[in-house]
Here is the input.
Amino acid sequence: MPAEKGSAFLLKVGDGASPPVYQTVAGLRTTQLSINGEAVVITHKGSGGWRELLSGAGVRSVSVSGAGIFTGSVAETRIKTNALSGVLDDYELSFESGERLRGKFLVARLDYAGDFNGERNYTLALESSGPVTSL
Here is the structure.
């Protein structure tokens, strides 16, 4: 598998329509995706001293974080509105290979910062709610 450009790892937010139309969150310089799974241990006396896990059980989640320069785009404004209202929204992550992940996410954190003679920047954290599908 060839290396992929980090700049092609894009975060997009839906427009609230059904089906949603996705807009790229402008200004993001870094993005990170974590897929998490919680194991259900079913080890018993007959396991021979080895841990056993139950396949398909447990809680799965996806976490997304990003940081960038504030540009005032429509997508950034939608994320801020979602953060202030605490609502779930449709998000999509796309990669250079063409793979995409879609699901409902909650804005768990949105921080803004800026220096006296510098640009305004932000960091965000999203947590999934329900299934995240690979397209």
